[in-house]
Write a structure and sequence with these properties.
This protein has one domain: Trna Endonuclease, Chain: A, domain 1 (3-Layer(aba) Sandwich). Helices cover 24% and strands 36% of the residues. It has a seven-stranded mixed sheet, with helices on both faces.
Length: 136
């Protein structure tokens, strides 16, 4: 499934350091983001004692799109907390996330409109409140 996702974002960088080497994964992720690549696969962040690896972190104007890739048969609302934690840790690491959601895979590849499940979009919070996401 990861290879299909990488085909959808040419020019992206895979963070393929072993998962147990968190410090190196985070450093390589920061290097890739600073290099302006269009996407980072398995982008890794550590904040508030929590480590995450984001399936796809796509560059967009003023921020990033966080995509959790799931097989078409396993996209479920139970996966929402996983995406929420990834958004929290990425933003706590200084990476603004403007859109977050799921993407299914099929023969046509990830991010097929017919496979798109739910997406969270940044919206302007009321005065006095922190940032928020809404589910479409």
């Amino acid at each position: 499934m990861g290879e299909l996702a990488r085909e959808r974002f040419p020019g992206g960088v895979l963070i393929d350091t072993p998962h147990w080497n968190r410090a190196e994964r985070v450093a390589r992720t920061q290097d890739a983001l600073a290099g302006g690549v269009p996407a980072v696969f398995e982008a890794s962040f550590l904040a508030d004692g929590v480590s995450v690896a984001v399936d796809v972190l796509e560059r967009m104007d003023g921020g990033r799109r966080l995509i959790e890739v799931k097989s078409a048969s396993s996209q479920k609302d139970e996966h929402l907390p996983d995406v929420a934690v990834q958004v929290h840790v990425a933003e706590a690491s200084g990476v603004p996330i403007h859109v977050a959601g799921f993407s299914g895979t099929s023969e046509a590849g990830p991010r097929c409109p017919e496979r798109q499940r739910r997406v969270a979009r940044r919206r302007q919070p009321p005065a006095g409140y922190g940032s928020s996401l809404r589910m479409d």
